[in-house]
Write a structure and sequence with these properties.
577 residues
Length: 577
């Protein structure tokens, strides 16, 4: 029945061009001229046979019959159907043959040209796609042309030679760059092509030109945010230029997320706070703000933000809502746990029912058990979680290691990671975690060996350079090497507040007190943190600025009164706040 319905519709489509006369709304019926549609019994049988072959596992025969029928009738639907049959059979060359025949029969058909372009790109024939690409720009209606240009980077996303694709797109768009209405969107498309080809400075230049062409457009800013994610900090100048005016909420949220990824938490909090002030019904803003406040140990503020999020979450699409609610419930459980209200914490965790969030919920439950003195039961709770695939096993391992670390069971955590590394000797992330635990157990030689192995495996892993450099500075040994390692980490992640803190600490160890104070103040401004406060306070104390040091330490205690570095600093210097 399905086949007959489809073929009946096809027959009507062939006849449609000749059924032009219409019956008036009122009055006597007028005779409709009868014209021959060209669909005779022989052609109908050919279409039927072609369709049956295509659906019965003989796409080659079905394709040939359908393409022949398309040529005989000069019907666009049949050309398209022949292309579709070839694509379903994964025959790119046949699909291209049909699409080109279609385009030749209908030179002004944008749909036919788009099929040719898409097939050539899918076949990775970048050079051959130049002509249909030009035609796509030429055939697009003026009101749809910006959209067509915007879609070009996505169309070429999977080609192998991205540099060639970028060059070709830039050549095709050369004329649009001098058209004021199209200049900005064209430069953005060129910038994205350059970014995909790995030419980040040239992509930034394109973004600059795009913003110069249209300062009100948010497209150059979105490209700039992608460049920031690609570790090109100069691109932030374009963002800040745009942010001097009215900022759409989605764009402010996108900027906040990029700041989060860059670990610039203070600025991310500022942007998110601005977002919810201007758009108090923005659910994701309250969720991110609450998470950031919780990270800064601002429990009351975090509680208010997450509670504000809960009713707003009902407006989100279901899948996004479930995921976001799970994150909020985990945050509220953590707040209750920090307040030692374990009953309330368990109540929030009980609201999480999605399978993918079970690991996080159970890990939080295990943490609550451990704080009640039930560490063996807590470990068993994590180990009892089901494993659907190898990634689940890894998550369970990391959750158990974190549980042991949080409860200062460093040797047990170290041994657990050692067993995992024996099974995965090239896993740099596990090695890095074990190196940090080696330091906690006093096995400093093991720590250095592991970190150097991590650096060899992942030369761009900034945290390994920083950890080794900070460890040398903390022990007051090989300080020039420590500074070199930390500066290497900052080259990889410029402006990271915690790595900047390490640099300030090594300057302090080397006796450069003013420089140490300057660097640490920069780090503390970027990220108010208890450990950075400990270091900055000690430098100020050594410089004789004891009142200022005491104030910094008090701020640090408000941020996190449990911070080990801050507590040890105050104890060593015999300071009572």
């Amino acid at each position: 029945m399905t086949r007959l319905i489809w073929l009946g519709g096809l027959a009507l489509s062939l006849a449609a061009p000749v059924l032009q006369a219409q019956t008036p709304a009122a009055g006597p019926a007028r005779a409709v001229p009868v014209q021959d549609s060209g669909l005779d019994g022989r052609l109908f049988y050919q279409l039927l046979l072609g369709e049956l072959n295509a659906r019965a596992g003989e796409p080659g025969a079905g394709f040939s019959l359908m393409l022949d029928a398309a040529r005989k009738t000069n019907n666009e639907q049949l050309y398209q159907r022949s292309v579709d049959i070839a694509l379903q059979a994964r025959s790119g060359d046949s699909a291209l043959q049909a699409a080109r025949a279609w385009k030749q029969a209908f030179p002004k058909s944008r749909e036919a040209n788009r099929y040719v372009l898409q097939i050539l790109v899918a076949l990775n024939r970048v050079e051959d796609s130049a002509e249909p690409l030009k035609a796509e720009i030429a055939l697009a209606p003026p009101d749809l042309l910006p959209l067509a240009i915007t879609g070009l980077p996505r169309a070429y996303a999977r080609v192998t030679d991205k540099k060639l694709a970028a060059t070709m797109v830039e050549q095709v768009l050369a004329d649009t760059l001098s058209t004021p209405a199209l200049a900005s969107v064209s430069w953005v498309a060129i910038g994205r092509m350059r970014l995909a080809a790995g030419d980040i400075p040239a992509s930034f230049e394109a973004a600059q030109r795009a913003q110069a062409a249209d300062r009100k457009s948010d497209a150059p800013v979105l490209l700039a945010l992608e460049l920031m994610e690609a570790k090109y900090p100069q691109a932030e100048t374009l963002v800040k230029t745009y942010f001097s005016g009215t900022v759409p909420p989605d764009l402010r949220m996108a900027y906040a997320r990029v700041l989060l990824d860059a670990q610039r938490y203070g600025e991310a909090t500022q942007q998110t706070q601005l977002l919810v002030n201007q758009h108090p019904d923005r659910a994701d803003g309250w969720l991110v703000l609450g998470t950031l406040q919780l990270q800064d140990n601002l429990l009351d503020a975090a509680d208010r933000s997450l509670q504000r999020f809960l009713p707003l979450a009902q407006k989100l699409p279901q899948e996004e809502r479930n995921r976001a609610l799970a994150q909020a419930y985990l945050g509220l459980a953590q707040i209750a746990e920090k307040r030692r209200n374990f009953t309330a914490a368990e109540g929030w965790l009980a609201k999480i029912d999605k399978a993918q969030d079970l690991m996080a919920a159970q890990s939080r439950r295990a943490s609550i058990l451990a704080k009640q003195g039930k560490l063996p039961e807590a470990r068993q709770m994590i180990r009892s979680l089901p494993e659907r695939d190898p990634s689940d096993a890894r998550l369970k391992l990391l959750a158990e290691v974190q549980l042991l670390r949080d409860n200062k069971q460093y040797p047990l955590a170290y041994d657990l990671l050692g067993k995992a590394i024996a099974a995965n000797p090239e896993d740099a992330d596990l090695m890095y975690d074990q190196a940090l635990l080696a330091e906690k157990t006093g096995a400093l030689d093991d720590m250095e060996r592991l970190l150097r192995r991590v650096i060899a495996l992942k030369p761009d892993f900034q945290h390994a350079y920083n950890a080794l450099g900070y460890s040398l500075a903390e022990r007051n040994v090989r300080l020039p090497e420590a500074r070199q390692l930390i500066k290497k980490a900052l080259e990889i992640t410029p402006g990271d507040p915690f790595i900047t803190d390490s640099l300030g600490w090594v300057e302090f160890r080397m006796g450069n007190l003013p420089e140490a104070a300057r660097v640490l103040e920069q780090a503390y401004k970027a990220k108010p943190d208890a450990e950075i406060a400990a270091h900055l306070g000690e430098v100020l104390w050594a410089m004789g600025q004891k009142e200022k040091a005491t104030n910094i330490w008090k701020e640090g205690m408000l941020l996190n009164s449990d911070n080990e570095t801050l507590r040890q600093t105050l104890q060593r210097l015999r300071v009572k706040l």
